[in-house]
Hints:
Elements: E1 29-33, H1 42-55, E2 60-66, H2 72-82, E3 85-93, E4 111-118
Parallel strand pairs: 1-2
Antiparallel strand pairs: 2-4, 3-4
Helix pairs in contact: 1-2
Amino acid sequence: xxTSLGCQLRFSHLDWTSFQESDLPEASVILGSDLxxxxxxxxxxxxxxxxxxxxxxxxxxxxxxxxxxxxxxxxFKKQLQDEGLRFQVLLKRTFGPEEGxxxxxxxxxxxxxxxxxxxxxxxxx
Length: 125
C-alpha cells in the first residue's frame, strides 16, 4: 500500500515458529504488538526479528508488550540479547480509563514499548 507520505506499507501474517528466510521481506521499520505472551514462542519470535533486522541496514523494530506472566518480559529481553539484538525500552506505563483505554477481559497491566536493532558487532549468528 502506497501512502501520501511516499512510503510503502506492507502488512503480513508471519508464523515465526516456521518460516523460510527467503520469504522474509526487507523492511526499514517493523511493528508488532501483543507478541510476548508465551515463553516457548520467544526463541522463534526473536530469531525472526533478527533475520528481518539483518536484511535491511539501519532497520528498527518497535514491539509493544503487555506485562502478563511474571517473567515473560525478562525472558524476552534475555532472548533478544541471545540473538545479538540490542533494545531500548521507550515507554513503560499503565494506562487507565482516564486516558480512554478500556479493557474488559483483564485487569490493567503495564505496557512496554521496545525499540530493537540488530547489533552489527555481534557475529555469533
